[in-house]
Design brief:
Elements: H1 3-26, H2 34-62, H3 68-94, H4 102-128
Helix pairs in contact: 1-2, 2-3, 3-4
Length: about 130
């Protein structure tokens, strides 16, 4: 994907996290259990953090300092947010526990994204030397 696409997706995911965070603070209390509310808030926090990480990927790609590893990291951040945060949102809004097994897969995908980001940065160092 291009830096522009990653940047737009990052901004939209940040917007969505803001809206969901507001709903979690004002609309959900009293409607779901404290445990589900805590899980929802964790999903929002992870989405915010990874939207920012994705924006960093977009900036690096725009500056021309990234390659396939960096693009793969961005793709993992998007897929991981969908799997981790998305499955928790589905659990809270839909009530079905069928989404539960997807959450750790999404978390693992986020970790892979961070590993790919580390590898991309390591490759920058080798190029600079």
């Amino acid at each position: 994907m291009t830096s522009r696409i990653y940047g737009v997706i990052a901004a939209l995911l940040g917007l969505l996290a803001t809206a969901l965070g507001a709903y979690g603070a004002h609309g959900l209390p009293g409607k779901v259990s404290a445990s589900l509310l805590a899980s929802f808030n964790t999903a929002v926090q992870y989405q915010f953090l990874h939207a920012l990480a994705l924006f960093g990927v977009a900036l690096a790609l725009r500056l021309g300092v990234g390659g396939r590893l960096l693009s793969a990291a961005g793709a993992c951040f998007i897929a991981g947010m969908a799997g981790f945060s998305g499955s928790i949102y589905m659990l809270v809004f839909g009530g079905s526990k069928i989404w539960g097994p997807i959450t750790p897969i999404g978390g693992l995908t986020l970790m892979i994204g961070w590993g790919l980001l580390a590898a991309a940065v390591f490759a920058w160092e080798r190029i600079d030397e």
